[in-house]
Amino acid sequence: MSETPPDASELTATGAEGHFRRLESLYRSAPVNRTFESRIEISGPGHARIRFQVDESSFHAAGAAHGTLYFKMLDDVAFYAANSLVSDRFLLTTAFNLHFTRPMRAGEAVAEGRWISGRRRVLIADAHIIGSDGEEAARGTGTFVRSHIPLSSLPGYKS
């Protein structure tokens, strides 16, 4: 059973919206994201969405998206859903369970993540991907812990 996410006023003195926009900036600043055409949106506490393009550059030899793309997008969207509830520290993934449900072909796909439980040290979030055909392509659940890295120390986490 899910816990209730903290009230947005609990997040930061500048408010939840500012924290969400800085997390979106952090996502865009990550060098790995130069490899993937993607856009993140944090719509509220515990919720994130990444729209991304699946193209031939991410295909395996049989002509569908390689598992690295599934994992990257599911981990990222679950991470940002969880980190939307933590305004002082960068979270780290400690475990991620992924289930492939169908191949992804070329086109736009959407990964959606939501926080499930945990508030203090360990947070759990789940995620799924809807492929360009409108069908679920994968789902997963991640476990995240607070690191010793202050979000404010990261150049990409800016106002």
Walk me through what this model shows:
This is PaaI family thioesterase. It holds the Pfam family 4HBT. Residues 63-137 form the Thioesterase domain. InterPro entries: HotDog_dom_sf, Thioestr_dom. The chain has 159 residues and is an alpha+beta fold. It has a single domain, classed as Hotdog Thioesterase (Thiol Ester Dehydrase, Chain A, Roll). It has helices spanning 16-29, 67-83, and strands spanning 38-44, 47-54, 89-100, 107-117, 122-130, 136-150. It has a 6-stranded antiparallel β-sheet with strand order 1-2-4-5-6-3. The protein is globular. It starts with 15 loop residues before the first helix and ends in a 9-residue tail after the last strand.
List the SSEs and their pairings:
Blueprint: H1 16-29, E1 38-44, E2 47-54, H2 67-83, E3 89-100, E4 107-117, E5 122-130, E6 136-150
Antiparallel strand pairs: 1-2, 2-4, 3-6, 4-5, 5-6
Which features characterize this protein?
single chain; 159 residues; alpha+beta; Thiol Ester Dehydrase, Chain A; 6-stranded antiparallel β-sheet; 2 helices; 6 strands; PaaI family thioesterase
Summarize the structure.
It holds the Pfam family 4HBT. This protein has two helices and six strands. About 5% of the residues have low confidence.
Main beta sheet strand tally, sense and closure: 6 strands, antiparallel
Number of strands: 6
CATH class: Alpha Beta
Which geometry do the CA atoms define?
Answer: globular
* Euclidean distance between termini CA atoms: 34 Å
Could you tell me the strand content as a percent range? 35-45%
- How is the quaternary structure best described? single chain
Q: How helix-rich are the residues, as a percent range?
A: 10-25%
The CATH topology is what?
Thiol Ester Dehydrase, Chain A
Main β-sheet, spatial strand arrangement: 1-2-4-5-6-3
Q: pLDDT average, as an integer?
A: 92
Unreliable parts:
6-13
Structural class: alpha+beta
Using only C-alpha atoms, the radius of gyration works out to 15 Å
Structurally, how many domains make up the residues?
A: 1
The H-level CATH homologous superfamily, spelled out, is Hotdog Thioesterase
Structure annotation, total helices: 2
Domain Thioesterase: 63-137
Protein name: PaaI family thioesterase
InterPro entries: HotDog_dom_sf, Thioestr_dom
Pfam family, one: 4HBT
